[in-house]
Structures are given as C-alpha cells and as structure tokens.
Design goal:
Layout (H helix, E strand, L loop, with lengths): L5 H7 L1 H9 L19 E6 L2 E9 L12 H8 L3 E6 L22 H4 L1 H13 L4 H5 L3 H9 L10 H11 L3 E6 L1 H9 L3 H13 L1 H16 L3 H6 L3 H5 L3 H30 L2 E6 L9 H6 L4 E4 L2
Parallel strand pairs: 2-5, 3-4, 3-5
Antiparallel strand pairs: 1-2, 1-6
Helix pairs in contact: 1-7, 2-14, 7-10, 10-14
C-alpha cells in the first residue's frame, strides 16, 4: 500500500484544525451579545467604481453534508472572474514539502512527548498506514493534525475541492492567498510547549474531538459563526489550563493568517468580480476578515 504523506493530510486539515481546536480559544471571539459578523457564510463586498466581489466561509471537513455548494454560491462564483482560495491544492505535489513536518535529523518526537504518549500515537498512526520511520520524526503539530484528522480522507467530499472544480469549469483565474511555506511557518510558530500539550490532548480526547466535528458541521450548516468560535468551552473545565494552548493555536493559525489574507486581498478587491473562499472561522468578529475589509471603506453585506 502506498503510504499517505502526513503533510498532504496535515495541510488539507489545517483550517479544519483551526476550526476544531480554535473553537476553544477564549481571546479570539470576545464576549457579549451576538454581533454583526456572528452569522452568515456568503457576503457581498462592494465599493463605488468597481463590480462587487464575494466572500464565502467554508468548512474544511470531507463530509457529504457540507460538500455540495449551494445554488447561490455557485451562481456568484460563475459570475466572477477570479477564484481565490486559502492555499492552492496543487501545492501539495511538491515532495520537498514533506520534509517540513519532520524534526531535524537525529531528533525524535518521543523525547518531547514521553514514551507513553509516543506509544499511543505510534499505534494509531501505524494503523492509518504511516511508517514508524516517519512517525518517529514528526513535529508535534503535524502529529496533532494526523491524530485529530479521523474523518474521511476522500478529497472529493471536501467543499473546497468542489469549489475549485466549479471555478475551473467556469474558466476562472485561480489564485491562492497563502504559500505552502507560509502555512507551515504558522504551525512552526506555535510554541513547542503548546504543540506538545495539544498533541497529548488530542490523543487523550479523540472521541470528544470527533463529537465536536458533528457540532461544527451543524453550526456551519446554520451559518452560525459565533458557535464555531465559542464551543466547546467545556474542554477547559475538564482539562484546566488547556485553553491557553488552544489560544496560541488560534492566534497563529487564525488571527495572524487572517491579517495576511486581508493584506493579500487589498489589490484584487479593487478590481472586483473575485470570489474568495476561506475557512469560516476567518470571517467572524471584529478581528475577522469581513470587519477588516469593511474598515477599508467597503460595503459588506450578508446574502447567505
């Protein structure tokens, strides 16, 4: 059997991990009553003198319930000139990317997480087709994603893949907001102590995280961005201190990357007729992409 490279799965699961784990982060969403950017997945962005553009919040889980774009989404996509996604799917073919999720030569993850956690991780990932050689040198963030990614691996069931296919059928220009190297750097920027804590938490609470995927899917289907952010706070009550590590993950994978996305969209939005598809977590709140764009004097209107 051909071994599935962990990096390919890890990058495909990056925003999903930010969604699943980021929901625990307390500092990202803030408190108080529901606000404007707490609800809605499809938004129109306008400024006088340019055609409108659209921003759609996706969910990066390969599941048939969320895989099919709505007629409204496909309609606005087909009328656009450019499709902009978080990370180009074609970027995964570079074999050198695989090395970026491996520790330096001679370093072993067992020395970071301990023999007991390593034995548990090894058993799980060997069952999923990974070699012991690869597992032994995985960076903790890559191992965390591999452990937490227990859903379908069928890329045809991923909403982002369906949107990309639709954009190609419509002969749209395809652009990405982020380079593979930049996304890897975001993972590497998570403090090592937090990477280790989150990996151990994922190993100890796999069933709970799997159940949270169901909650995330329901929230996304309802367009409830606030729910994507605020649950499951119970994880911290059951595991005191873990929330601060989730906050680190959210800061690097959501907040910092949202700022970069906003910067990369500045010029394309001026021309209009672009369709942007990014993880829904990047849209929510006053630090989200929609609020940042609105502060650039665009009119941002929920349409779905």
């Amino acid at each position: 059997m051909t071994e599935m490279r962990p990096m390919r799965r890890a990058l495909l699961a990056a925003a999903a991990a930010a969604t699943v784990f980021g929901a625990v982060g307390r500092g990202w969403a803030g408190a108080g009553s529901r606000k404007r950017y707490d609800k809605g997945l499809l938004w129109r962005v306008e400024k006088d003198g340019a055609p409108p553009s659209y921003i759609f919040g996706t969910i990066h889980l390969a599941d048939p319930r969320v895989a099919e774009p709505s007629a409204a989404v496909l309609g606005e996509l087909s009328r656009s000139r450019t499709f902009v996604m978080e990370l180009a799917v074609d970027a995964f073919v570079d074999p050198s990317v695989f090395d970026s999720e491996q520790l330096a030569e001679g370093s072993k993850i067992e020395s970071l997480i301990g023999a007991e956690a390593y034995a548990q991780m090894q058993r799980l990932l060997v069952e999923r087709g990974m070699s012991e050689r690869v597992i032994a040198r995985m960076k903790p963030w890559a191992a965390m994603l591999a452990v937490a990614s227990s859903g379908s691996r069928d890329a045809s069931l991923a909403l982002d893949s369906r949107l990309l296919a639709a954009a190609r059928r419509a002969h749209l220009r395809i652009e990405a907001l982020e380079l593979v190297e930049e996304q890897i750097a975001s993972f590497d920027a998570i403090p090592l102590a937090s990477q280790v804590a989150l990996l151990k938490h994922a190993l100890a609470h796999r069933a709970a995280l799997e159940a949270e995927n169901e909650t995330m899917i329901r929230a996304w289907l309802e367009g409830d961005l606030a729910e994507l952010i605020h649950f499951p706070s119970r994880m911290d009550s059951e595991n005191p201190g873990i929330a601060r590590h989730y906050d680190e993950l959210v800061r690097h994978l959501v907040y910092d990357r949202t700022i970069l996305m906003h910067h990369r969209l500045a010029l394309p939005l001026r021309t209009g007729r672009i369709f942007v598809a990014v993880g829904a977590l990047h849209l929510q709140g006053e630090k989200g992409l929609l609020a940042l764009i609105e502060r650039d004097d665009y009119r941002v209107t929920r349409i779905g």
